[in-house]
Amino acid sequence: MNESPNLGRLTVELAGLRRRLASMLYEVLLLLGVLGLTFMVPLLIIGVVWNVTPPGWLEWLYIYIVLAGYFLWYWRRGGQTLAMQTWRLKLVDVDTGLEISRGKGLARYTLAWFSVLSLLGLLWALVDRDRQFLHDRLVGSRIVLMPPVKH
């Protein structure tokens, strides 16, 4: 039931909801490693060396910034995170069919926090005509299915 919008010059297939949810689950596993290296290790060193624990709000801000860097890096360089590459998914701008701009990427990332944590964005996908998440609908981005790689 996936429509094929015209993104740029190519007609592509929107990625199905199950595939996008599976990719999100895999992304969470990968992000545990990213956060382990960029969050836990520095905080352990700070805690052991200086015996300091940053306030909770500062830790959440740090997590937000680290993950924003991860997602924006991949979305702007090919439109695919590591998990999206595995599941043959690509994030594109609805208007151009290309990678999303920094502004749209940051808006999508920020809205996704609310959308996913509140479950509103996931529930939205059940009633949306194209089965898109709320943050994609609001920002003007889509996740499309890439063709299989031929060897």
Q: Major sheet, described briefly?
A: 3 strands, antiparallel
- How many domains is the backbone divided into? 1
Low-confidence residue ranges: none
The assigned structural class equals mainly alpha
CA distance, first residue to last residue = 29 Å
Order of strands in the sheet with most strands: 3-5-4
Supply the number of helical segments: 6
> How many extended strands?
5
Oligomer: single chain
Overall form: elongated
Mean pLDDT: 91
CA radius of gyration is: 17 Å
| Portion in strands | 5-15%
Please provide the ordered H/E string of secondary-structure elements. EEEHHHEHHHE
The helix content is 55-70%
Describe the structure.
The chain contains 6 helices and 5 strands, in the order βββαααβαααβ. The protein is mainly alpha-helical and 151 residues long. It has one domain.
List keywords for this structure.
151 residues; mainly alpha; three-stranded antiparallel β-sheet; two-stranded antiparallel ribbon; 6 helices; 5 strands
SSE arrangement:
Blueprint: E1 6-7, E2 10-11, E3 13-14, H1 17-50, H2 56-76, H3 82-86, E4 89-93, H4 102-117, H5 120-127, H6 134-139, E5 141-145
Antiparallel strand pairs: 1-2, 3-5, 4-5
Helix pairs in contact: 1-2, 2-4
Summarize the model shown.
The protein is mainly alpha-helical and 151 residues long. 60% of the residues lie in helices and 11% in strands.
